[in-house]
Amino acid sequence: MASETNLSAMNERVAVSSAMPSDYYELLKPRVMQLVVFTAIAGLMLAPGPLHPVLSIIAILCIAIGAGASGALNMWYDADIDAAMSRTAKRPIPGGRVSRDEALAFGLVLSFFSVIVLGLVINWLSAGLLAFTIFFYAVIYSMWLKRATPQNIVVGGAAGAIPPVIGWAAVTGSVSLESIVLFAIIFMWTPPHFWALALFKAGDYERVNVPMLPNVVGNRATQNQILAYSILLAPIGVLPFLMGFGGFAYGVVSGALGLAFIYHAWKCWQMDSKDERMVPAKKLFGFSILYLFALFGTLIIEAATPAIASAFVG
């Protein structure tokens, strides 16, 4: 009831839009968009075959805009629960700076633009994958899974895992085992990352009736799941090295960080499930972000190194 009242007041305040460009930028979920762009660049750079630098930039921009469109559509649909959660209450819609109608129109226009441009300029496989990603995140995850099942993050994680596959498809016009491995790394990373967050934000999710795992099965069962997924993630993270499309540096980094991930998950598992401070969960959440950026960053650096060396030699 309180969230409905907040939304009603919010809509009255934005009857005449006073939104700034920064508000629309915030609708794009820039932190999530950065991760999407980063992993898409890795897929694009690791893919065999050339792609003109200008076309590469266009492809990445389209993927970034598509990811931002997904974020805007998510904020449009979730405005009611965002208004009641401390973590999201200051977003543009609950903050009264952008109306839901404006966010919806913004998200739809960006979705259409990003998919059409990617298809016309690059290829229709990558455009189709981008369209599927937007649909999956905005409709399957946001409108259905998020409020329906504690496995929302497990299934919904597919949307965040597809960008490197799109980057790969932009270059090759196909999907390969290598790109699926990149997908698998992000897909397996997503549950322990978000469940660690859910452990210390359980009150927010309970307040808005979103069935995150800790609110449904309890903290102890969630800690068990986090440890299990982390143990599975560590060897999957090393696969690019074992398959030959990640170099020696990647093998060292992925192996060390995989063990560190298991260590943080173990500390989270050992944590008293009734501990309100949730320090190990917070540490795991923070480390998980570093883990993914370090893995894909190493792949990008390794892929870029021969090109840089060639440019200097040339």
Overall pLDDT score:
91
First-to-last CA distance? 67 Å
How does the helix and strand content classify structurally? Answer: mainly alpha
How many helices in DSSP terms?
A: 15
User: What's the main sheet like?
Assistant: none
What are the secondary-structure elements, in order, as H or E?
Answer: HHHHHHHHHHHHHHH
| Share of β-strand residues | under 5%
CATH homologous superfamily descriptor of the largest domain: UbiA prenyltransferase
Which CATH class of the largest domain? Answer: Mainly Alpha
What is the fold named in CATH at topology level of the largest domain?
Tetracycline Repressor, domain 2
Q: State the helical fraction.
A: over 70%
Counted beta strands: 0
Radius of gyration: 20 Å
Form type: flat
CATH architectural label of the largest domain? Orthogonal Bundle
- Contiguous low-pLDDT stretches (5 residues minimum) are 309-314
